[in-house]
Specification:
Elements (H helix, E strand, L loop, with lengths): L2 H27 L9 E10 L2 E12 L3 H31 L8 H17 L4 H62 L5 H15 L4 E5 L5 E5 L4 E4 L1 E2 L2 E2 L20 E3 L2 E3 L12 H32 L12 E3 L12 H4 E3 L13 H4 L13 H11 L16 H38 L5 H33 L2
Antiparallel strand pairs: 1-2, 3-4, 4-5, 5-6, 7-8, 8-9, 10-11
């Protein structure tokens, strides 16, 4: 081997050692950086015309486990999905109220029953009759409050859908740009690992919104697909379309066309289908809240309101056929107009002094022209019986078994509570799974001790190659001195 070849070999060794030192120093400097993938330098022997020609740098690569990352992203999507549903159900449970809590739906119904019992013991007492009126009005207000809160939750879900869609579109566009930059860097032989870290971090962010899988393409670029098969990015970024609304009322549904669905590149996605292309992340759960769970909760609340109205409009309680103590905005209830009834509950004007009525009609009958016998508590007792009587609900998702109004309200809350507990269990499981996978990922993180050992080897290699060059220089000086 000539001195020139030896010199070339040593120079390539110095270059490789310098690059290795750069990689090691970068790893050590970023040992605490979130999302940083440990770099490794890959080398190979170089030959020229069949002869050894030193060392060749193949490139700088990231230490990652693609399968592990994919599993962690799916777990993140499951966590995002369960968290949205758990939070909504918890909020719904709170607005209905635990039976023991003051101001809960059950407590308001119980307060009405208590007021009726007290009034029936002293039907001549105007203050006690006024207490019945107040308690009955509190019941109507509670129904309205719960209904308003349900619609506000749907509104919040709609707004969050819009925000997540905007974030998805922006992120996919940026990932496309990063793909282009990575392609350019890789094609020109430059290090693109920093850009790849940025891309991985952005993909991680959208993975919680829509469960996805990453597919490697040429020159370190990637394509993205949802686990349901929709193309998010393959060369060019996809674009989601969604139109939010400024307000939501119970009658506004996806089926009626009053609320927007979602499309990808102009193709509609059926979010109500069990296996749709975006199912599994937080975005899908927001649609489930807005279009399914909250709609069912409103329907059940209206069913309870209907049950209340029909109990007090029964001829045994009110023989006027005017609609009973509880009305639909002052009119008799029409079973064909049950939707949003809970928002329209109102007391009969005939018993409400604020509407020109008289409170003694609670005792003497809603249609009474003049005050009757002050000691007659029969109609008040009939109202108590109406609340307590086991009556099967005519609508809603409840079982058809007969029960009291308070029991029906308790069943409504219980159903929400069971769903909430199930979703909280899902959150706990998904969080544990995500944490475990993240811990496994950290095994691929920077090991500072190992990097320091590598640095010692790099130092020795650099010194050895420098020594070779020094020796060659001395040999050349010796030759020049002859």
């Amino acid at each position: 081997m000539s001195l020139t070849s030896s010199f070339s070999n040593a120079l390539s060794g110095l270059s490789a050692s310098s690059r290795a030192a750069q990689v090691v120093s970068s790893n050590i400097a970023n040992s605490l950086t979130e999302g940083y993938a440990t770099r490794r330098l890959e080398l190979s022997s170089q030959s020229l015309a069949g002869n050894g020609a030193g060392v060749q740098i193949e490139g700088i690569f990231r230490n990652v486990d693609s399968g592990l990352i994919s599993d962690r992203r799916v777990a993140q999507a499951e966590l995002g999905n369960a968290s949205v549903l758990s939070e909504f159900l918890g909020e719904l449970e709170r607005t209905i109220g635990i039976p023991e809590d003051a101001g809960s739906l059950n407590q308001e119904i119980s307060a009405l029953e208590t007021a009726l019992i007290e009034a029936s013991s002293r039907p001549d007492s105007t203050p006690r009759l006024n207490a019945v009126l107040i308690a009955a009005n509190d019941v109507t207000q509670k129904f309205k409050t719960v209904s308003d809160d349900i619609q506000n939750m749907r509104m919040s879900a709609d707004h969050e859908i819009g925000a997540q869609v905007a974030f998805l579109n922006d992120s996919l566009q940026k990932i496309e740009e990063l793909n282009d930059h990575i392609l350019a860097q890789t094609s020109s032989g430059h290090d693109a690992t920093g850009l790849m870290d940025q891309r991985q971090a952005m993909i991680d962010q959208i993975a919680e919104i829509v469960p996805l899988k990453e597919v490697a393409r040429d020159r370190n670029t990637v394509a993205l697909f949802t686990t349901g098969g929709a193309v998010l990015l393959d060369g060019r970024a996809g674009e989601f379309q969604f139109a939010g609304v400024s307000t939501i009322v119970p009658q506004m549904t996806l089926e009626s066309g009053a609320l927007s669905g979602i499309s990808l590149n102009g193709y509609p996605i059926d979010t109500t289908a069990e296996r749709n292309s975006i199912n599994g992340g937080s975005l899908a759960s927001l649609f489930e809240v807005r279009d399914e769970i909250a709609v069912l909760a409103q329907s059940d609340l209206d069913a309870i309101a209907r049950n209340l109205v029909e109990r007090f409009s029964d001829p045994a309680v009110d023989n006027t056929t005017a609609g009973g103590l509880f009305t639909d905005s002052g009119a008799a209830f029409n079973p064909l107009n049950e939707s949003a009834l809970s928002t329209r509950l109102a007391l009969a004007a005939s018993v409400d002094p604020a509407q020109g009525g008289e409170v003694w009609r609670l005792r003497d009958g809603l249609g009474a022209v003049t005050a009757g016998e002050v000691g007659d508590a029969s109609k008040l007792q009939a109202m108590i019986d109406a609340l307590r009587s086991p009556i099967a609900p005519a609508s809603g998702s409840f079982a058809s078994s007969a029960r009291s109004l308070n029991d029906l309200s308790a069943d409504f809350l219980s159903s929400i509570g069971v769903q909430r507990q199930s979703r909280e269990s899902d959150v706990s499981f998904a969080a544990t799974k995500t944490t475990a996978l993240q811990s496994q990922e950290k095994a691929y993180g920077v090991d500072s001790d190992q990097e320091m050992q590598k640095l010692l080897l790099v130092e020795r290699s650099y010194a050895a190659n420098a020594k070779v060059i020094q020796s060659i220089d001395q040999m050349l000086d010796l030759l020049m001195g002859l």
